[in-house]
Design a protein that fits this description.
It contains five helices and three strands; from the N terminus they run H-E-H-H-E-E-H-H. By secondary structure, it is α+β, with helices and mostly antiparallel strands. A hairpin with a 2-residue loop joins strand 2 and strand 3. The radius of gyration is 14 Å and the shape is globular.
Length: about 80
């Protein structure tokens, strides 16, 4: 198990609030909002007065994100964070 996996446990609920969804994806809330605006992430659902995101839908959208393979390049900031 990696250090990152140990540091952030899997959610115990299917539906997450906005900040929890951003943390699950690994971005800030503002970045998640931009990703939603760019149709890279799913929109929220409203259940009564709560606005939530489904973990399974987030997982699927995260897996489908476009990106470049960085290979074995080390990001110096990973060690700082």
């Amino acid at each position: 198990m990696t250090e990152r996996t140990k540091a952030f446990p899997l959610p115990t609920r299917r539906k997450l609030y906005r900040a929890e969804a951003a943390a699950y994806v690994g971005v800030t809330v503002d970045t998640l909002d931009c990703m939603i605006a760019d149709d890279l992430m799913p929109r929220m659902i409203r259940i009564y007065y709560r606005t939530l995101r489904d973990v399974r839908v987030l997982e699927s959208a995260t897996n489908a994100l476009p990106g470049k393979d960085c290979g074995d390049k080390v990001n110096d900031w990973d060690e700082v964070l």
